[in-house]
Structures are given as structure tokens and as C-alpha cells.
Amino acid sequence: MTFTSTGIVPAADLPPGTPARTRGRWVRAALAVAFAFWTSQVAAVEPDWAQVPAGAYTSVLKLDDVGLAQQVEAFELMTRPVTNGEFLEFVRRYPDWRRDRAPRIFVDENYLAHWSGPTEPGSEVRADQPVTQVSWFAALAYCEAQHARLPTWGEWEYVAAADETRADARSDPAWRERILGWYSRPGGRALPPVGKTPANLYGIRDLHGLVWEWVEDFNAMMVSADNREQGDPDILRFCGAGAISMADRENYAVLMRTALLSSLQAGSTTRNLGFRCARDLQEPSP
């Protein structure tokens, strides 16, 4: 094969009589160019972190004795989800997390199944797309390798309530309709690159309309038994307004997320579930 402006073409398309050694050089050169092109996308999406100030908000879930009123301490959050390119670097550095080596207690059979190989995402997977089909264990391991952690549900919900100018836009009907519009889009299409949605008040993107995201305390969420019996969690992403029956339309999008997360186990993966990392603010040196 050779690498052209339109992609890689088979070595069989070389002129008849081309020596096998020459064909081998073409193959190696084409693969090298293709790999360089793919990894160049990785460098273009280096992660940024946004500082989120401390604050209070009203949660849609009662997760502890405090009730719906929640206080969030200041922290930092990645401005967009982790990408295929970044996770590829992680599994190459920590090969125990390759899909052919990761223990089945930590991942299910669909872990990174959309990649063409254990360390080859393939031509159908872009480096700047959000990585999906990653378990909670794998997401946590990635964040810990970055000296970070997964965000808590309270942190995620707090940040996700903001729009471009307000810390809490959830009471705005126009904002709610925009969020619901994102969730009602049909699935099955290729995921867009990260970082393309408008930044909210904190400079954070892609909290809505791209992928679901793991949170540190996902298993503390409770939904009804009927929602736990939904079956394949991937179905939830595609069934739009029929996914959950509820009267409070303004919290619908958030409750869709909680229904999905509460249906999962820590080793579960789904093709529309990714993650981003959070970290505590560093204490200033004395």
C-alpha cells in the first residue's frame, strides 16, 4: 500500500513487477506516515484544566443526609473528555490496561472493542474523538496516572448546570430545550471531536450532547427498579424521549444520566460512555 492525499491504497496497486522488497518498503513507509498523521491529532488536543470555584446548588438527587442542597468545594476539571489518542498513550505506557490483558474483573468483553487492535485504534477511530467503551476501573486508573481522579456526581452536576454566562441555567426553558435537543438526536453516528460545544461559565465543554461520563460515586445513585431493568445501557442513548417516564421535564436530561449510571457495574462499558478527570486544588506552599 502507499499513502496518498486521499489515504492509504493497497500495495497491489503498485506497478506490475515491482520487487517484493520495494513493496515492503512502501508498506512500512505508508504505515509510518499514517501513524505520524494519527499521532499529530493527539498533540493537537492536549488537555486543559479549568478551575471551578466552591459553591452551593440544589441537586436533583438525594445522595446523603444533607438532602438536595449540596455544597461543592473548589476543584479543577478537564475542559473536555479524554480522547482516544490520550487513552492510547495510556495503554501503551501501562500495557496491563490493553484490552487483551486487562483482567475481566475490571473490564467486560466490550472494553475498547471499537478499536481495531489492543494498541491500534484503526482508521475508523479518530484520535480527537472521546474515548468510549471504557470501564469505571479503567477510567479511574487513567485519572490516577495523571495524578487526578474521577469527578464526583455532585461536582459533575454542579458544573453541568452552568451555561455560557450563568452558574445555574436549569430554570431557563430555552436552556432546557437546548439540552433536550442534544439528547433527542438519533444515535449510531460517528462521535464528533471533543471541544466543539460552547464553553460554559467555567470554560468547560462537552458536558451535554457528546457522551455520557463516568463519575467517582456512580454506584451511590439510586433509580427505580424498572429503570434498573432497562437491559442494554446502550439502548438508553438512542431511545430519546421514551427512555424514562417522569413528570419533571426540566430535570429529564440529568435523570437520563443517573438512570444509565445506576444500571452499570464498575466493569461495564458502553459505546457512548466516556470520562474526564478532576483534581483537588493544590494548597499554596507556605
Percentage of residues assigned to helices:
25-40%
The assigned structural class equals: alpha+beta
Mean pLDDT, all residues: 77
Largest sheet: 3 strands, antiparallel
Q: Helix count, per DSSP?
A: 8
Q: What proportion strand? A: 5-15%
Distance linking N and C termini: 60 Å
Give a description of the structure.
The protein has 286 residues and is α+β, with helices and mostly antiparallel strands. The protein has eight helices and nine strands. The protein has helices at 20-43, 84-93, 136-145, 153-160, 173-183, 225-228, 233-238, 252-262; strands at 2-4, 7-9, 49-52, 55-58, 69-72, 75-78, 212-213, 273-274, 278-280. The model is unreliable at 1-14, 30-45 and 223-249 (pLDDT under 50).
Helix/strand layout:
Elements lengths: L1 E3 L2 E3 L10 H24 L5 E4 L2 E4 L10 E4 L2 E4 L5 H10 L42 H10 L7 H8 L12 H11 L28 E2 L11 H4 L4 H6 L13 H11 L10 E2 L3 E3 L6
Parallel strand pairs: 7-8
Antiparallel strand pairs: 1-2, 3-6, 4-5, 6-9
Note the main attributes of this structure.
single chain, 286 residues, alpha+beta, 8 helices, 9 strands, disordered N terminus
Question: Concise description?
Answer:
This protein has 286 residues and is of the alpha+beta class.
